[in-house]
Amino acid sequence: MAGCTSTTSAGAGGSEIRLVSEGKLTVCTHLPYEPFQFKKSGKIVGFDVDVMDLVAEELKVEQKIVDTPWEGIQSGEDLNANKCDAAAAGMTINDVRRKNLDFSAPYFDATQALLVKKGATYASLKDLKGRKLGVQASTTGEEYARKKAPDGVELVQFEDVGLLLTAVRTGQVDAGINDNGVLYDYVKGNPDTRVTAEFDTGEQYGLGVRKGNTALRKKIDQVLKQARADGTYDRIHKKWFGKEPGK
Q: How far is the C-alpha of 172 from the C-alpha of 167, rounded, in Å?
């Protein structure tokens, strides 16, 4: 299999961090997921990109981003196949995914929210009885909707969040559920939509590595801790969300 020959980079405490490509920290993501990772002027940018750049800098390598289907990320398949060293994809830590990959310490707090066209009055899942609710496949938003939406709400599945957001805006579905950070960012550029509700799911994002890749996981945690301590994390957060965390 191509890419299976690993190179090594010195890790913390003398441990060795094995990378799938020499001089590169290869990171899998699933585009688009603005503002975490998306294409702008032909370049992949975003909050997650800046965070993983910190890890790459610490390892003295460059970040290489691979856009890949979401299922391969959350299932751990891409990591196991040496398609990437790490996954940064606005990914909520949960028990199912913990069985497939190892997570860093949490680096972002999130919750689910409801997006509708401006003028629509849907403010809860109950309001959508007899209506269509868009969900992104294999996400915590879809899981929440399947558990909480009452009978009579038709769930319409989309492969990525870009398709979901467009479906809400064009009226293909009556509302969409996804992570609040993504929806609020979308509303900024699309004032004909609005967020009408948040659902307190208490989610936290983690950066993923292959099961047992302790050296890289510890390095990521070390970088995150340092970034929070020296203000770098706050600056990155303000760059992409317009404010520091908690403000």
A: 5
